[in-house]
Amino acid sequence: MENKFNKLKKLKEKALEGGGKQRVDKQHKKGKLTARERVELLLDKGSFEEIGMLKEHRSYDFGLEHQQFLGDGVVTGYGTISGRLVYVFAQDFTVFGGALSETHAEKICRIMDLAVQNGAPVIGLNDSGGARIQEGVSSLGGYADIFYRNTLASGVIPQISAIMGPCAGGAVYSPAITDFILMVEDTSYMFVTGPNVVKTVTNEEVSSEDLGGASAHSTKSGVTHLVASNDFDCIQQIKKLLSYMPQNCNEKTEKHPYQLGKEYRDKLTRIIPDNPMHPYDMKEVIQEIVDENSFFEIQEAYAENIVVGFARLAGRSIGIVANQPYALAGVLDVDSSKKGARFVRFCDCFNIPLLVLVDVPGFLPGTHQEWNAIITNGAKLLYAFSDATVPRVTLITRKAYGGAYDVMNSKHIGADMNFAWPSAEIAVMGAKGASEIIFKNDIQSSSDPAQTLLEKEQEYQDKFANPYRAASRGFIDEVIEPRESRRKLIKAFDMLELKKVSKPMRKHGNIPL
Questions:
Q1: N or C: which end of the chain has fewer CB within 10 A?
Q2: Are 25 and 158 members of one domain?
């Protein structure tokens, strides 16, 4: 019997070696951790239970039968993060460059199935050169099996993808289906086709970093949601991100203990400039409203004219969508609409209430926007808010003009509570533009057109550029002093905690993709 135990011990030791010391050292020299080191750092100490440690590939083509590694290039299993059950897979770049084989994919699919069955998040630590070429269609089929499970799990359990090395070709589509993507500066990249293929097909010369590095995907494409400086930082961000989410779609996030006080924030009264044309930082408003140091911004460097992220309000996890006057005056455009819509959909999937802070002058005009489908993309944000059934509270701080007023979680598309500050301007458009249209004849026939325009602007301003006309119609539930915003919002979300919505029977809606 002792011989059998020794055999098992030797097999496990062999599996723990991955691709061998030389390849592990090479991984470390790149500033990267190994798959097992990443899992150990991610999970609570001693909680990891590995599944499929001794699994091997079944391919005998191109000499693969002479290259067998226990685990076949991916570490899979389950454990806990802050006591919460999670499932994890970590691709091992020291084995075949992390390339995916049929059995490699089977291991990933196995833990994804378990995650859905047991209602717990799944975290993928991606570090792979792509499909294992020697296996041909078998490895491609393995990718498709993973994509299918990503889709089935979408909206059922949180799915988080960390790109901690190369991710190319078909490998990028699994992370793209998941809820959040993290990338590591200088060591990770994502693209459908690499620089060599790009040069062959389009004659463009571009580096891997410029084509699909963390900077490109966090600022230009919006593919990645969070950027980390190294592997350690990436793991810490995963843990923080997970803390704002429930285990699955049938649960709510854990509410942290909080003792309600007066909750007034006098600084809020001084943030809005007297001149409505001057910008201000909406993040200052967010910081004053939410619990101290609890705001966790998502996609910070992409479509900066809208701010999205998680925070806590009196210990409760909430999602925030806010126009940012500091960037393009907070206008809605193609990128900000997509960014906001995707975040709203995630929060609604997982019972995370939404706070919407509004200062929006409208949709960005121009041929670039129209030709890039601002109509369809703007409709995505409209659809996402309209379709959401979680508690939804809106606070208008300043401008809310035109169709953008409707889209930004107005009462008309199902918001539960709508507040406005006295500085709010709710109208079809700004006073100057409206006056030029409404009073065109008066202005043109006047002996002093400029003075007449100023007078008409003031007339329109007094009549419409305030929150009171909307409040008189019931479109605004209450006009409040800025300093009492936090207290009002806490009470509103408390009141809405047991909200239930019945929707018409349907297979699913057809969001304007």
A1: N
A2: yes
